[in-house]
Specification:
This protein is of the alpha+beta class. It has twelve helices and twelve strands.
Length: about 350
């Protein structure tokens, strides 16, 4: 009984701090009855799109509860992530903000499930009720793990973290068939010496028309962060190609990455190198076709590639299963088909 009262006090306090609307309180009540949690302890983070709370279960396990905000303004610019995702062809109603946030929370739950099922570290989704998502807590004693941007890592650990991030980008693409689309030092937690991917509500399926642009942005943000820390990063294009290249065998992924990293560390630092940055700039601004079919003259381009001619401006070799040097024209598409069990 005390528990219930205390929970109510805590919930009220949380309410006055963050103004939970009646629907949210109702969802929380339902979740508490379902014994998803016993006590809600307070706010871990407040954001534009969601607030995250700390809670504990009857057995004193810590969990995180992410409550998505129902304000329409916030979700307007999220539209580009949801529109085009095959999982939201139906059941997504742009005119109804409540349905929209619900769809959003559902998307985060599914994405977390997919990412987890591929063995990528991230909070396990525990329970979803409307726009309220309970998930595994990454941290300890009521304190969230540090974000990558605040993590204090040795030089060696920083270098390794960069490698891990590039591997995660590839694994998300190849195995979870997702592009995070908001990957940065803000959305990676560093917990017990491991990286955890969070905030995957906007992650898109590979079917999404903009998924490769999002991938390029993710690569850019991760590179920029690690360059500031003095890591000899790959180019954005190398990260991109590494992520999408289907010709790398499962047991050759680490070796392939190591090769790229070795090459990266023997060239001048990316930030001040005029030539490298110019090439990066071209890639950043290049139009990336999602499928070979979107390229008007792909046969002409293929001939140019095969003939070893200038490939400037052709950025789909890996995607189309072609290598720049034509060493391995592949029958397999770099755009994996949907074989990921979508739900758990
Ligand atoms: P937003 O969309 O507001 O950026 P995030 O999912 O990135 O939401 O969460 C915001 C913050 O809340 C994170 O930076 C982290 O500090 C904390 N947080 C989110 N999920 C968890 C979790 N599962 N465990 C611990 N802390 C979390
Ligand atoms: Mg975030």
């Amino acid at each position: 009984m005390t528990g219930a009262v205390r929970t109510k006090d805590r919930a009220d306090r949380a309410t006055s701090e963050q103004v939970l609307d009646p629907r949210t309180l109702y969802a929380l009540q339902k979740m508490r009855r379902a014994e998803v949690f016993e006590e809600m302890n307070g706010v871990l983070a407040t954001g534009k799109e969601a607030n995250v709370y700390h809670a504990t279960t009857l057995s004193h396990t810590e969990i995180a509860i992410k409550i998505f905000k129902t304000s329409i303004l916030v979700f307007k610019d999220r539209d580009r992530y949801v529109t085009g995702d095959f999982r939201f062809r139906t059941g997504y109603c742009r005119s109804n903000p409540r349905k929209m946030v619900k769809a959003w929370a559902e998307k985060e739950r599914r994405n977390l499930a997919r990412i987890n099922s591929c063995g990528i570290r991230s909070p396990k989704p525990l329970h979803l009720r409307m726009h309220v998502l309970a998930m595994e807590f990454i941290g300890s004693k009521g304190v969230s793990a540090l974000r990558l941007k605040d993590a204090k890592m040795s030089k060696a650990r920083t270098d390794r973290a960069y490698q891990e991030m590039v591997r995660i980008i590839r694994q998300m693409y190849q195995e979870a068939h997702l592009v995070h689309a908001d990957l940065s030092e803000w959305n990676v937690l560093f917990h017990e010496d491991e990286l955890y991917i969070i905030d995957v509500g906007q992650a898109v399926d590979l079917d999404h028309p903009h998924c490769l642009e999002f991938l390029r942005e993710d690569a850019l943000h991760i590179n920029q962060f690690f360059q500031k820390l003095g890591v000899a990063t790959l180019t954005i294009r190398e990260v991109f190609d590494y992520a999408v290249d289907p010709s790398i065998p499962a047991d050759g992924q680490d070796a392939a990455l190591q090769q790229l990293l070795d090459a990266a560390s023997s060239r001048p630092a990316m930030v001040d190198d005029g030539i490298a940055s110019a090439e990066e700039e071209v890639f950043r601004q290049a139009y990336i076709p999602r499928r070979l079919g979107e390229v008007a003259d792909h046969e002409g381009d293929y001939d140019r590639l095969a003939g070893g001619q200038d490939t400037q401006g052709i950025y789909y070799q890996s995607i189309a299963g072609m290598k720049a040097d034509m060493s391995g024209a592949q029958s397999q598409s770099a755009h994996p088909s949907h074989s990921v069990p979508d739900e758990s």
